[in-house]
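WARN retry 2 of 3 for item q-0093 after timeout on previous attempt; input resubmitted unchanged.
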Amino acid sequence: MASTLDVGSHLRAIRQLHGLSQRELAKRAGVTNGMISLIEQNRVSPSVSSLKKVLDGIPMSLAEFFTMDVALPPQVFYSADELTPIGTPPVELFLVAARRPQRAMSVLRERYAPGADTGPEMMSHPGEEGGIVVRGRIEVTIGSTTRVLAAGDAYYFSTAVPHRFRNPGDEDCEIISAGTPPTF
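OK item q-0093 returned
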C-alpha cells in the first residue's frame, strides 16, 4: 500500500532545511505569505502549477520535492547530559554523538581521577588522536617519550605508536580529545 505524502509538512521541512522563513519563500516565489502558511497547515491543497511556483522560490523541481527524504537532520548540539558515558571511574570518558550514523571521528570529554591511568599496558590502534588539557595535569607516554601536560597544553600523535595516559596530580584532570577513525 502506497503512503500519501503530507505536502504541507513536507514543504515546511524543506523550507526550514533551506533556512527560509515563510515570508522569504513567499517573496522569492512571488506568492503571498498566507498561501505558504495555508499550504503548510494543509488547509489548502495546491495545484501542481501553484506548488511548482512555490518550489521555484527554493529552487527545487517537483520531482525533487516528491522524492526528497526530509528525515530529521543529524543532531549537532549536545548538552552535557547527552554525552554517552563509555568509561568508568577512575577514568571517565564521555562520547559526543555516539548514535550519529557513519561518524568519522570520536570526540571525547575525558576525566582522570588523581592517580588514574589507562592501564599498565600501552595501547595502540590505527589512526590519530589529539587533545587539549582543560584542567589538572596528565602524564602522556607516546612510545619512549613521556611528558606531563598542564591546563592549556595539547598533544597530537599517531595512535599506531604505543601510548598511555596517567594523572600524576592530586586533582581531577579533564581533557577534550578527538580521534580518527572512531575507536568508540
